[in-house]
Specification:
Blueprint: E1 8-11, H1 17-28, E2 32-37, H2 40-47, E3 54-58, H3 64-78, E4 83-86, H4 101-127, E5 134-139, H5 152-174, E6 179-186, H6 192-195, H7 201-204, H8 219-230, E7 241-244, H9 248-251
Parallel strand pairs: 1-2, 1-4, 2-3, 4-5, 5-6, 6-7
Helix pairs in contact: 1-8, 3-4, 4-5
The structure holds nicotinamide-adenine-dinucleotide.
């Protein structure tokens, strides 16, 4: 109930499937939460159903000035910053031949640049808060680990998040700072992002269409992992990649390779 009492967290992409579940679980464990999204109306409507411990802010994660404002508003409103969940995301379906440079840059701007900017601007605020500890939680994907040919831009962006996370973790560790940085790698969860792929979903590795009955996960499966990473219970975890996919990565390898066009 109070695993996150006195913690202040920012969650990006908080109007979406995973983001809204993460906000709910962080709030229910006692954290104060700033939920941000580029969809201002959606995030504002969600925040209205919470206590005064939840604040909604409009925020495009590709905009550095917006990051400065969100961090400053968080510190002013709740008195510090302990946790950042870099969760905002978009997907583009296409192989390396089908994807344009513009598609590639758009996807990487949200995931790779957005996560970079978030970590960069959250670190000074975490150092200046309370005892100087903090937890950076970066949403990657199983596509950063296996080979997923039909989402080349997304896989590349999630790979950047995976390695960026370890570089940031090694940096804080080398300085002896109590700021941790870990990545989460979910398998498929049926949110608006997956639905937006429409019929292309099969290309991405729809496990049921591939003759595999492993069901998709629920947003809460990931939200509970975020609670652990946000809490002091994970104080000894830094630079780790946490796969959460009901064993898909270890049992099947890359299902998408087996789906024929
Ligand atoms: N759903 C899955 O199967 C799955 C699997 C692995 C990883 N992920 C990752 O989980 C995260 C959340 O995805 P989801 O499934 O909840 O998708 P979703 O589409 O439900 O939510 C994504 C949210 O990000 C917001 N967003 C997009 N671009 C933004 C920007 N530039 N600035 C601010 N907000 C922006 C959207 O408005 C939306 O509310 C993403 O990083 C995604 O890549 C999802």
């Amino acid at each position: 109930m109070d695993r996150l009492k006195n913690k202040v967290a920012i969650v990006t992409g908080a109007a979406g499937g995973l983001g809204s579940a993460i906000v709910r679980r962080l709030h229910d464990e006692g954290a104060s939460v700033v939920m941000t999204d580029r969809d201002e109306g959606a995030v504002g409507a969600l925040a209205a159903s919470y206590s005064e411990r939840v604040l909604a802010l409009a925020h495009d994660v590709t905009d550095e000035e917006a990051w400065r404002r969100v961090i400053a508003d968080t510190v002013e409103h709740f008195g510090g910053l302990d946790v950042l969940v870099n969760n905002a995301g978009i997907v583009h379906v296409g192989t390396v031949e089908e994807t344009t440079l513009e598609d590639f840059r758009n996807v990487n701007a949200v995931h790779s640049e957005g996560t970079f900017l978030g970590c960069k601007h959250a670190l000074p605020a975490m150092r200046a808060s309370g005892d100087g500890s903090g937890s950076l939680i970066n949403m990657s994907s199983v596509t950063a680990i296996g080979g997923f040919p039909y989402v080349i831009a997304y896989a590349a962006a999630k790979g950047a998040i995976r390695s960026m996370t370890k570089a940031i973790a090694a940096g804080t560790s080398a300085k002896g700072e109590p700021i941790r940085c870990n990545s989460i790698h979910p398998g498929r969860i049926d949110t608006a992002m997956v639905a937006s792929c429409g019929e292309d979903r099969e290309k991405m590795g729809d496990r049921r269409s591939a003759g595999n009955d492993n069901p998709p996960g629920e947003p809460d499966d990931v939200a509970y992992l975020v609670v652990y990473l946000a809490s002091d219970e994970s104080a000894w975890m830094n630079g780790s990649e946490l796969v959460i996919d009901n064993g898909a990565t270890i049992t099947d390898g890359n299902v998408s390779l087996r789906v024929r066009r």
